[in-house]
Amino acid sequence: MSFMLIQTPDPLTLRDALPDFSHISHIFLPINDCRNPSQAEGGSHWSLLVVSVVDGVAFHYDSLSPSNSNEAIMTTKKLSVLLERQLKFLDLEDCPQQVNSSDCGVFVCVQMKHLLMKKLLLADGKERINMSMGGKCVNAQSGRKEMLRVIDMFKKEGERRQSRSSSPYQSKSKSPPRIE
User: Fold this and answer.
1) Structure pTM?
2) Is 119 helix (H, G, I), strand (E, B) or coil?
3) Does the annotation count 62 as an active-site position?
4) Residue 55 in contact with residue 24, Cβ under 8 Å?
5) Which is catalytic among the residues 34, 60, 91, 104?
6) Fewer CB within 10 Å, N side or C side of the chain?
7) What is the Rg, in whole angstroms, of the alpha carbon atoms belonging to the chain?
């Protein structure tokens, strides 16, 4: 979504392609530094933008700060137009920093989980939440293991559901269905 926002001159033209944000409190957006519109899978770095729609604040978490600041600022401006409300941009300087050039995606996933599970979902709707990641350590190796565990869990669940399916069209093939 952030890539589409950055590449589109008028974000309002994306309204029909995006979810309805009218009853959303927070938006989690992975940010990538790809600048080539013909190469959506490009880029070399990921960061996280969390937008508190209710508070009008966009928090940017960059594990190689300030690598993706421009992209995050541009996304915030475009999202502000789309939401029809002013958003204040905060580049959080206390974000945990990676020590290599390959952990940014893991950092985004771990930070997203932490912010959602340990901050937003535990908060009372009336209290203010500190969105800082200061003092939080990200262990990329543990993050990778957790992601593999989750993927394996979903894979097993899919296999379990497939084996219980009572569809008269079910084939014995292990390959996914093909459209004729």
Assistant:
1) 0.81
2) helix
3) yes
4) no
5) 104
6) C
7) 19
